[in-house]
């Protein structure tokens, strides 16, 4: 399904409902740095997030070092932030809460 780029207003109000997510790169992406207790927890989070990404057919850019996972979400085909980025962000919040 073709995703439309969200307006800055919609992005800002959607971000207000998510803990710790920020607009990045002049509004092209949303990002969060997750911190876990151990590498095992961080990797379990990544496994669950990867399964959500496959279900949504929407994939994160991320970088893991030990207990930290830096996530950047953008919709490559739209060149900006779409509703899919927020659906994946919500799935990641749920996965992080389960750790
Ligand atoms: C062919 C496939 O549907 C596309 O390449 C999907 C896969 N995952 C994706 N993930 C993200 N973040 N942006 C995309 O544009 C995108 N496109």
From TrEMBL:
It catalyses: (4aS,6R)-4a-hydroxy-L-erythro-5,6,7,8-tetrahydrobiopterin = (6R)-L-erythro-6,7-dihydrobiopterin + H2O. GO terms for biological process: tetrahydrobiopterin biosynthetic process. One of its GO terms (molecular function) is 4-alpha-hydroxytetrahydrobiopterin dehydratase activity. Pfam families: Pterin_4a (PF01329). Keywords: Lyase. It comes from the Bacteria. Its EC number is 4.2.1.96. This is Putative pterin-4-alpha-carbinolamine dehydratase. Gene3D superfamilies: Transcriptional coactivator/pterin dehydratase. It comes from Mycoplana azooxidifex. Belongs to the pterin-4-alpha-carbinolamine dehydratase family.
């Amino acid at each position: 399904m073709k995703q439309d780029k969200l307006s800055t207003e919609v992005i800002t109000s959607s971000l207000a409902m998510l803990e710790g997510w920020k607009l990045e790169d002049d509004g092209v992406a949303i990002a969060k740095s997750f911190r876990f207790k151990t590498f095992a927890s961080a990797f379990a989070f990544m496994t669950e997030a990867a399964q959500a990404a496959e279900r949504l057919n929407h994939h994160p850019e991320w970088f893991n070092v030990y207990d930290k996972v830096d996530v950047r979400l953008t919709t490559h085909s739209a060149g900006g932030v779409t509703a899919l980025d927020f659906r994946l962000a919500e799935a990641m919040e749920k996965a992080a809460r389960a750790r």
